[in-house]
Amino acid sequence: MTEVSHDPITLEIIQNSLQATADEMFAAMRKTAMSSIIYEVLDMGTGILDAEGELASSGAGIPGFIGVLDKSVKVLVKKFDKPGDIEPGDVFITNDPYYGGVTHLNDLVVAMPVFADGKLIAWTANIAHNSDVGGKSPGSLSADATEIFQEGLRLPAIKMISKGEPIPGIFDIIMVNSRMPDFIEGDLWAAIASVRIGAKRLVELATKYGIATFETAMRDFMNFGEQVSLKALADLPHGTFEMTEEQDDGRFFNVKVTISDTEFTVDLRDNPDQDNGPFNAGHDDTLVSTQVIFKALTSPHSPANGGSFRPLKLLTKEGTLFHAKEPAAVGFYYEVGIRVYDLIWRCLAPHMPEKLPAGHFASIAGTFIGGIHPDTGRQYTIIEPQIGGWGAAFGRDGNSAIFSGVHGETYNCPAEISEARNGLTIDRLELCTDPGGEGEFTGGRGIRLDYRIRRDNSFLTLGYTRSRIAPWSIAGGHEGSQNYALVMRKDGTSERFAFGSGIRVDKDDVIRIITGAGGGVGDPKKRDPEKVRDDVRNGYLTAERAATVYGVTI
Fold first, then answer.
1. Per-residue pLDDT tens digits for 470-523
2. Residue 429 structural domain
């Protein structure tokens, strides 16, 4: 019998190797993917799970993806529970939030079991946003969808590769349902390459140190994650905190957070029924959003694993927009998820001023533009989350032009890539200096981004929140500003949008994206006059507004 090593140095080496393997999986996928949403924006995530599907180590990528993979793999483990169902060389796929997919149909989860000496010891998995998986609208996001059947091809936790060989028909079904079949095929094989290289590394690791030691290291790492979270909980304010906030559409969302030495409980049961459109999230995605803010409050600098989230409890009510029932549409789930994250943040901000600044622009601001490429004649779809302003904190101004909380760890697509790969031109990308976010410490700036369309009969789909209700301020600061888009027609007219799908745009029409400033902190009249003068010199502020808001004459 192989000796089990509990030597802390050996366990630490294995734990760090797990993290390195997840990072290598991420690099492999990024370097081989076809779509810029993956290889430039990095709208993806990788992870390693134990044999039961618990998250053993997460890789890089979107924070909102860190808690997706374990939930998907647990569905696979439960579904394929008979002898021979899961074998070496198999690869599985799911995208349906009602069957292990967690998010929405564009996000394909690919998972591979890892065997050593005939024993299932782990899983490797990844997730990435794919440009088009069918459905009623190009890009598979439909603001007017009323059920998930309209949003694209549903893959309910199925096997697509058996013992190393593609199952006949699976890839054909996926590709024929996409308006961009070559892109989805390329991105899918990049995902498969990623889980395969991860599986290879884990087998090498288990062979070198022994399976029992390998499994002990994973359990130890998760136990350590739990200890880190519990230690952090002891330092947070204890009690029950509650808040209700109005949303852009006039509805009110409520959250209750109870913190003790051993638990962090989020209660979302008192919330509206699920939406008739696509503004819904499944229970598991809502849980992911709570995991992100929980990790930020407890141990933001340590790796995430299943143990990290053991003290977190989520209470939801089935049939509400935070726990939607099949067949509710879920295309814009991410704007629901970030509302959960932001709601908890705002609820706790008054009690944790050293950890939580004023409100940020708080929207993924997903922007989908596509049509027929004027040069190649092929279908294209640009998928672009947007950057915006973060809130000020006591003692410092907010950051400008970075991604929202749930969508951090990503990048905006370079103009050169957008222009080379897609049928549009980037006229401008600059900081937005519209009023908002003033205070003793000012909120960060959002952006102004202009896409110029190059061919008639192109389309725009978008979904922004905080388009009416601005980011909140603290201690007398000014609220931030809103997120929205303007379609500026070549005839001089313009239309404002926050949600919409299939909006027609033609050659020389300009789509102008405006993202909000973060909230300010403190009375603007107390701002250091020299900082006000710097803002005027740098073009962030007019001399007239400096005098009106800050009382500083330039």
1. 999 999 999 999 999 999 999 999 999 999 989 999 999 999 999 999 999 999
2. 357-522
Q: Where are the beta strands (DSSP E) in 262-374?
A: 264-267, 312-315, 366-372
d(C-alpha 380, C-alpha 130), whole Å: 12
Ordered DSSP codes for 493-531 = -EEEESEEEEEEE-TT-EEEEE-PPPPPBS-GGGS-HHH
DSSP state of 273: B
**For 16-35, what is each residue's pLDDT tens digit?**
999 999 999 999 999 999 99
SS3 state at 44: strand
Residues 6+ away with beta carbon under 8 Å from 302:
225, 228, 308
Q: Tell me what the mean pLDDT of segment 411-415 comes to.
A: 89
Tell me if 36 is assigned to some domain. Answer: yes
pLDDT of residue 3: 62
**pLDDT tens digits along 256-315:** 999 999 999 999 999 999 999 999 999 999 999 999 999 999 998 888 899 999 999 999
How far CA 374 is from CA of 399, 458, 511, in Å, comes to 37, 10, 17
Residue 67 pLDDT level (bands cut at 50, 70, 90): confident
**Does residue 480 contact residue 518 with C-beta atoms inside 8 Å?**
yes
Give the mean pLDDT of 46-52: 96
Residue at 268 is within a domain = no
Q: What is the pLDDT of residue 6?
A: 79
* Closest C-alpha among 481, 474, 516, 272 to residue 357: 474
Q: Where is the domain boundary, 225, 255, 282?
A: 225
pLDDT at 80 over 50: yes
Quick check: is 396 in a domain? yes
CA distance 554 to 552: 6
The DSSP letter of residue 374 is: T
Of residues 505, 469, 465, the one with CA closest to residue 486: 505
Residue 121 maps to a domain: yes
Q: CA 392 to CA 401: how far, in whole Å? A: 13
Tell me what the mean pLDDT of segment 369-397 comes to.
Answer: 93
Q: H or E element: which one contains 298? A: helix 283-298
- For residues 443 and 516, give the distance between their C-alpha atoms in angstroms, rounded to a whole number: 10
Q: Please choose, from the candidates 475, 465, 479, 549, the residue with its C-alpha nearest in 3D space to the C-alpha of residue 517.
A: 479
The strands making up 107-116's β-sheet, listed across from edge to edge, are 55-61, 44-50, 119-129, 107-116, 91-94, 158-162, 165-166
Among residues 170, 190, 225, which one ends one of the domains? 225
Containing H/E element for 24? helix 8-32
Consecutive H or E run containing 463:
strand 458-463
Q: Does residue 380 register a pLDDT over 80? A: yes
Alpha helices in 306-412 (DSSP H): 333-348
Q: Are 433 and 321 in contact (CB under 8 A)?
A: no
Q: Compute the distance between CA of residue 166 and CA of residue 397 in angstroms, rounded to an integer.
A: 53
- Secondary structure of 378-396 in HEC code, one letter for each residue: CEEEEEECCCECCCCECCE
Residues 35 and 175 in one domain: yes
Measuring CA to CA, how many Å separate 404 from each of 277, 407, 408?
A: 24, 5, 6
